[in-house]
Amino acid sequence: MNGTHTKFTNGDIGEEKPLKVLIAGGGIGGLSAAIFLRQAGHTVEIFESSRFASETGAAIHIPSNVNGLLRRMGLIPEDHGANQCEWVSEYRPNGEQVFLKDVRMLSKVFPYPWQLIHRVDLHNALKAIATSSEGKGTPAILHLRSRVASVDVASTSLTLEDGTSHSGDLIIGADGVHSKIRGALIKDLPPPEPSGSSAFRFLIPIETIRSDPKTAHFAERDGELRLLYGGDRRIVVYPCKQNTSLNFVALHPDEESEASAEEWDQSASKETMLHCFRSYPEDVKAVLAKAAPEGINLWKLLDHDELGRQNWVHGNIALLGDAAHAFLPHQGQGGAQAIEDAAAFGALFPFGTRTEDIPKRLEMYIQARYDRATLVQDVTRQSAFKTSRGKHGGMVMNPMQFTELNFNHDAFDNAHGILLRELRKAAAYQRMPLSFGPTPSPRQDLNGRARTLGKHNYRTSFVTFKTHKSYLNTLLPSNEFVISSQGSWATATFSVSKLGNLAWLGARGYSFFGLYIHDVTHTKEGAGGNADTKEAKGDFLPVLFENMADPIITGREEIHFPKVFATLDEQASASSYKLSAGWEGTEFCQMSLDGLSESVDAESVLQAPVLTCSSNVSSDEKGTTETLSCFSSPALPSQQGEKRWKAASAKIKFTDLEGKELELAFPTLANIVKGLRGIKIVEILNAGVQAFDYSNVSN
Ligand SMILES: Cc1cc2nc3c(=O)[nH]c(=O)nc-3n(C[C@H](O)[C@H](O)[C@H](O)COP(=O)(O)OP(=O)(O)OC[C@H]3O[C@@H](n4cnc5c(N)ncnc54)[C@H](O)[C@@H]3O)c2cc1C
């Protein structure tokens, strides 16, 4: 026999309410986070420095896994001009083709398509979903021309450049590569630095390219992503806008264009661009020459060292997207990783997350995102081409090599799995099944937090009687249990409770019927003699019949109650009560109370702790009992406002079935029924009913 345990939590989970989330930056990452969090049920405000005129004419690719995240948000890329990436080809500096791969078959390997979309289309679609009055949750409020100047960790607040302050439960810094929030949180961090290369970005209508025989081959296949290698430079070309526009990213050593690191989209001269790629084959130069000068933007590529795990989150403020992990464009993963971060927020902050849960959830955010984003960031760095000023790159990589790494990761499911496992670990009760996170029960909610019975109702009908102590002693599972009444008599109660309107059972209820042996003491001697001896007093419960599987399972696993299934049919009127307990249509017990009259001075029964005994089964040898343990649980609370009735008479009778007949009627219960039938009711001491209904209580 082990020690005496008390394992019953009771607390109040309170009303669930939305978190107030403030997001700095309405770029791809900020808007995606706003969508995931509004759809989870939270209130979201976005503070965006620009007027949203700055998204430039360039395309972005949507890897299969991120495509799935967009669809989860309700954004269907093809409805916004996205076309599929169907081919990938690579060319040497002399124009010779290295390979042409049909990547349409990837749709058989990954669940969502690999698509190419115009940034403005993606951004507009995200903005519409985040702020729309339609769709799940409360529309996010978008404040334009609202540049965040600083944040305060202690008060979880941000201050705008105009001096106004806003506070929330959670702040997300999604303000891009030059993040103010990051700068405010981490004072001694070196800023992002030039990587040694820059990129010209522009679009050319496919019609223009097709109409010229010298360049028509650049548009001969729909959805072709071309990599035009050239030593220390590279051009990436792919279509967007349903294959009507060809997007160019022309990467080159930054000293050749000397762009400012502070501004992303300067207009750059066409002349400089053509000069940078003068060594390229004639057909490439011919296609570059078709770029409209006013449509060419120059982007100086910045790199940022890993921030370190400890720097992604400070208090209830977290970084997301480029603010947390600035990306070079060589794998087209910057936007993708920002969306993955946002999805992790959606998964880790379901409705019902409380302010006090936020720090732990942000730890899970780091767990879900840090290694993944950092790995992709690093692989991206390595896949850059080497320039004289650049620190990284120069590794020869097959562009398809990392498709598996990039595409084969569902950031929402990954974070959701982390949340479930962490909640289960921290839950009050490790209840089976373990795969779905904490399973709700009378004692814990979906988050594994303690819960009360809530606005329930109950009716308990009981018979307390005098009986032979010697027989009740046979029902005590070890000598450590003793009935402490004097002499040869003992008292016990048969009691039936019907519970209703239980939150954890979808407002339904169930009944339970048990035998309670009064005045029992359990004594466990400790190894250190008397000082270590533990004693528990209460009503010992040899068996509890219940008529629903869920409470039987939770009660057995969580509070070690000896629960078994039985049908419990009850009939109650103003003056009488009847119970028929049975199994599969055969009755084993009848209990009845008659002549019930309301009694204001009747005492509540069964208010002592409930003692139960369960065996600890060895994990090595199935069914081998190693030890027995005694558990003490609080009695069901007797509510204020409870009504009580006394019975003028009461009867309880167990079945007359004997031997084989009994076993056939009740294969698993026969021995229990036989044991209960051995109890002689010498005198009924008290019988009655007590009931409570929350809905009758005036607030
Ligand atoms: C040419 C090019 C091609 C690319 N191709 C791809 C690709 O194919 N695939 C891919 O996944 N990624 C690609 N990227 C990278 C990707 O665009 C970025 O990594 C991504 O936009 C990062 O998202 P974000 O939300 O973190 O930051 P951003 O999109 O930069 O958004 C930050 C937002 O914050 C706002 N802001 C800044 N400071 C403040 C402030 N103080 N207060 C309030 N608001 C502020 C900005 O105005 C902006 O709206 C490409 C980038 C470029 C330039």
Automatic annotation (TrEMBL):
One of its GO terms (molecular function) is FAD binding. Keywords: FAD, Flavoprotein, Monooxygenase, Oxidoreductase. Gene3D superfamilies: Acetoacetate decarboxylase-like, FAD/NAD(P)-binding domain. It comes from the Eukaryota. Belongs to the paxM FAD-dependent monooxygenase family. InterPro entries: ADC_dom_sf, FAD-bd, FAD-dep_Monooxygenase_BioMet, FAD/NAD-bd_sf. Residues 20-377 form the FAD-binding domain. It comes from Cadophora malorum. It holds the Pfam family FAD_binding_3. This is FAD-binding domain-containing protein.
